[in-house]
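Sample entry (427 residues):
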Amino acid sequence: MKERPLVAKLVSDIRLPRMFKVRQKFSREHINKEEIPDIIFKLLSEEKFASRIKPGMSIAITAGSRGIANVALITKSIADFVKSRGASPFVVPAMGSHGGATAEGQREILTGYGITEEYIGCPIVSSMEVVKIGVNDEGGDVFIDKHAAEAGGIIVSCRIKPHTSFRGPYESGIMKMMAIGLGKQHGAEVCHSQGYRNMAKNIPFFGRCILKNAPVLFAVPVIENAFDETHGIYAVAAEDVETEEPKLLKEAFSLMPRILVDSCDVLVVDQIGKNFSGTGMDPNVTGTFISPYVTGGIKSQRVVVLDLSEESHGNAIGIGCATVTTKRLSAKIDYSKMYPNVITSTTIEEARVPMTMESDEDAIRLAVKTCSEIDKANPRIVRIPNSLHIEHIMLSEAYLEEARANDRLEIESAPEYMKFNEEGDLF
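Predicted structure, serialized as tokens:
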């Protein structure tokens, strides 16, 4: 038998508890996928929006790096409407420095979401070239994608949701998509340069300048429910963005999922990735905030991250928010994809690789062993698949009575020990 590493031996005295599955109950109201094209066509057929698209116009449609539900179909539906008005649409990656801050990397991200020229039915123009379009209220230069700036019009397609590092009336949404997404690496770096303390101020400063000086026609934002499903699709005219986006953000906050126990000793996250959150795992769920300007999520002593999603293309941003990880995950990291992201955002802490263990089992044992002032014979462990899909989660036996008393938790299985293969990884 292969000799176990010394570090693994040092945690071998920890006996992991039995776990049981629960279903967390959240509102499931959503839009069926087949309804999306008709909804978008009906929204944009209103004179307020349709009249802005003239025959022969070149129209840029933004597409970001987030794993938005139905994003390819939404993008295609917008493009189809533009074509129905006699105009010529093209898709512009609007994702700041993501994709390794390269045109090829950003196109690759869109391909992973099904946004291809063949499916959307129009060109994808991916470039990192930007042009200055004006100055903001503080006199700072504002840049956006060159091709979008030169188009006859821009349609901002995006998702509105709470941000992971700051709070304000505009978080992840229309204003940020313009200021940071369309700004590409250069614009994103400028916007981030004053840190997250000033982000709530800078996002609208940059966004207002773009609305004033770039050919933005309107936005088509979506809001999702707790199950990563399309809950609402909206059309917002350029002149209404400043007043309407904060209202939509409040709605998005009300639909956010969360872990329905307040604290744990150890949080185990099966996967992190850019398709789950811009920060790999959404701290609004996991409580793993790098920024001191926002709070929320579950409270834990230790966070174990086991794997990285394929959709993340090696960008393991957020790994620095964990206290323990695995060699399986660390072997998947592409630093050329991760480092440009954190350099641009200035949150380099998110790229620090934590203590790394050979297997899932040893990683979880290490986390339990190094917790202080807990019952190590009966630790409180929460396990989630990722920070986006948390309807079904695992709780350790210490939560059994609490789960039985919570009418928003449905117990789905009897407690049983976690099953590991010969290498010590979870089945």
